[in-house]
Amino acid sequence: MANDTGGPRRAAIRDGLLTEPLDDLSKVRLQGSRCRQCGEVTLGRNSLCPNCGGSELEVVPLSDRGELWTYTVVRHKPPGDYRGPEPFRPFGLGLVELPDGLRVMSPIEGDVDSLTVGMPLTLKVAVHHTGPSGEDVVAFAFAPAR
Amino acid sequence: MSDVVILGAGIHPFGRFDTSYEEIGATAAAAALADAGVAWKDIQAAYLARMYLPATSGARILRRLGSTDIPIVDVEAACASGGVALRQAILAIRSGEADLVMVLGTEKMPRGFMDPRMIYAPWQIEMGMSLNPSYWSMRARRHMHEFGTTDLHIAKVAYKNHRNSVHNPNAMYRKEFSLEEIANSPLVCDPIRRLEICAPNDGAAAVIVASKERAAKLGGNPITIAACCHSIARFSADFRCPADSMSATANNPGPTEVTGHMAYERAGLGPDDIDCFEVQDTDAFCEVEIYEELGLCGLGEAGRLIDEGTTEIGGAKPVNMSGGLISKGEPVGASHLGQVVEIVSQLRGQSGKRQVEGAKVGLAHVLGAGGNCAVTILKR
Ligand SMILES: [Zn+2]
Fold it and tell me: Which residue intervals define the domain Thiolase C-terminal in the entry (chain B) (predicted)?
């Protein structure tokens, strides 16, 4: 995503995952695709509904608030091209239930020993790492709601 | 589906070996032929289940047994590959194309965590969502929240399987651990611990299957395949697929429940008719959930089943007499056929100290990436 103001270029970690523009990250939300045929909402911009196969999908911004439906703590550095903090720190990973009718797999920020099912969370969108062309790669997490 | 039978079964131990996958696979194939009393030249088709081996591995392995021009097909469906290969053989026999077929599962796997690019999208890997046990662990945490299942219940399943493996010469670890050792082993992904998960490794297992008519001419004591079913997870029914999001409204039954039900129906049997089970204990919690999904107990009752010792050898519904994948290791393509080899041995009364007294019917279950699930029911 070229940015005409001369700042660093930014791109979502997965195409269609986030609302645009990405200039002010405090205004960015996750996006979902709502199927006009069956009503199911799936994460990101999708062209076909994985439930009914319908092709009339509406891209909708998702709520930035949710509840922790289940979680784990990743205690070992994940294999492959993991781009999290170095050195590795254990982190929470969970399914966050949003009022939009879906549960999103997400890293959970904060103290890994204070996670509980049902805890309220808010979306955090931030630059995650530097991409292959020097661009800022933007990703998401959820953090305990204040 | 009582029209197809198993004439013979063979296995190469599961573990870590310096030998080639061709040699590992050929060892199991030759053992199955010998057990069936059948010559390689009489086999009319062969299926190889594998996930991590190169192209045409089936032909590369089986050429070692002698020159052949029969169709040899590699089959892949993640952890369910073996069940899918067996099903292909059954379909070939039922179609009338063949009446004597080999099904082989072989794997030689990289050490440690599996290469995530086989299963996950690049962005999931970059964000740290590519550690397989994390998905299983989230299932466990939710079950604990909803039903009061405890860390101790999960540890007890691992304890049982490690203890059973001591009597299985084909298992990798064959070591009993105390409940304390298991419950204090390092966390991999909370609440799942090091001694509660399986490791990828090397191994092979094979069966020779035949039509009932062909088997009658050959003689011996064949084992009947009462059902062999495969399905993949319905929409949002299993987040080990792995999913990036799950529906909060769809309420589809999981692949184990669906495939198990299908197999029970085909066999005309229910969970109470089964004398012994081999199931996918990728981690100890996975087995806990399968108790409920295969109908060994009701939803949320697995903890009680464990506390009552029902699934131990000597209990009413013994599970993973072989030691399960936790102690055998999981050579993905070979794992279901390894379970089938164990059930055949149980139904023949050849399982020694891990024998389930008087076992007449057994069930084998696998579940893995893509929500691939296979269930095979055998009877004597
Ligand atoms: Zn739809």
Answer: 256-377
